[in-house]
Design a protein that fits this description.
By secondary structure, this protein is mainly β. Helix content is 0%, strand content 50%. It contains no helices and eleven strands. Strands 2, 4, 5, 6, 9, 10 and 11 form a seven-stranded mixed beta sheet that branches. Strands 1-3-8-7 form a four-stranded antiparallel beta sheet, with no helix packed on it. A hairpin with a 4-residue loop joins strand 5 and strand 6.
């Protein structure tokens, strides 16, 4: 059974930083895409940053160099370091994974496995 569990959300002021973690368990596929999506109140879920098993990375256009995604294979942990956060970054951030690594570049949010989400709130 695949399980993803996020942590690290919280509240910061504009310009602040947060680091999100996602612990992945039960996932055995050798080819994959994993990443982060977010959903703001009243808006659709959107892709933030994805990484695949070949360490290819794709960021949403709004990231603009502020976020960094990485994966610690030893710890089976997916990380998202977010700097210079702005109020428009507020939302629930979800960790996601599946075997369709070829979809990475499309930044779609159609994943087979999802975490519960962690709230990120940025005040102005």
């Amino acid at each position: 059974q695949v399980q993803l569990k996020e942590s690290g959300g919280g509240s910061v002021e504009a310009g602040g930083s947060l680091k999100l973690s996602c612990t992945v368990s039960g996932y055995t596929a050798t080819r994959y895409r994993m990443g982060w999506a977010r959903q703001a109140p009243g808006k659709e879920r959107e892709g933030v940053a994805f990484i695949d098993s070949n360490t290819r990375i794709k960021y949403g256009d709004f990231v603009k160099g502020r976020f960094t995604i990485s994966k610690d294979n030893t710890e089976n942990t997916l990380l998202l370091e977010m700097n210079n956060l702005q109020p428009e970054d507020t939302g629930v951030y979800y960790c996601a994974a599946d075997e369709r690594w070829w979809l990475l570049e499309y930044l779609g949010v159609d994943f087979n496995y999802w975490g519960q989400g962690t709230q990120v709130t940025v005040s102005s």
